[in-house]
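Continuing the batch. This is chain 6 of the set; chains 1 through 5 are on the previous pages. Same settings as before, nothing changed between runs. Recording input and output for traceability.
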Amino acid sequence: MKYIGKAGLAVGTALLLAGCSGGGGGDTHSSSTGTATGLTAPRTTPMPTPTPTPYGPVLSASIDPVNAALAQVTGAKNLADLDTVLTTVSTSAQTAASSLSKADQPAAVSKEQTVLVAALKLLAKDATTVRGDIKSHDVCALGSAEAELGAAQGLAEVSAALSKMTEAGYSTTFAVPQLPKQQSRSLDNGAMVSKGKLRGEGVFKVDNGTKKDAVVSLVLNGKTVHSMFVGKGQKADLKGVEDGTYDVYVSEGVDWDSEAKAFTQNCGFTKFEDNFPYETGSTSTSWEITLQPVADGNAKTNDVDPNSFPQP
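Output for chain 6:
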């Protein structure tokens, strides 16, 4: 909760061998010679030297699950789908890194394998990071989440390391998915996202002193009547507000998607606790709010579940 300005205006076995000797009688003038019983040493068959598993199949067996997981990224229908896919990407990349770190690689690619293992660990970390950003609403649209994965270093480093392996004669199938680039779209300050009749006499003023763009909505009986875009660090006025008692909702963020009517990054959703009455003839036909906390602020805002936020 923050106070905002409002004015009415993650076991060995041992083998024991016993020898027997036999003696024959003779005269006392002759000597006898004892002959030892002949013992044959047990034969030992040398263990065959294990044949190392060819490195190529080991490499492919490690990389194929990662490639299969990445192929699912662009098929995600929403953020929940993508979160599940990213879990598979992270798990498969970490498993591949662990498997290859224990493999007997040819000396010719010892350095390349070390680099590849590190790159796979980074990819696993990147996928986990995107999952965390989805949960925290640092990315709040499918395209921006995919863009974050695409811009991370892990994918590029795994691809580069596997290219070196191919040059050394160990090729694998690995395709980097075609992912969108991150965007930073905006509207003109004061632009209407939703516009009612605006035939009244009320005025609604907004001071956005934050570092994020905002869309401020006047909601009547649970339905959005007016929504206005207010750029970061700017002010805007809405004139012609009709009579009624309005709730005020604020959506803040980066990169406004006009088609979805939503920000795609760093999203925040709040609602003012107080409502805002407009009545023709009243002296208080003008209200003013500040989106940044102020020392003498007399209005409170509460976070709102994005799933219950009114469509601007």
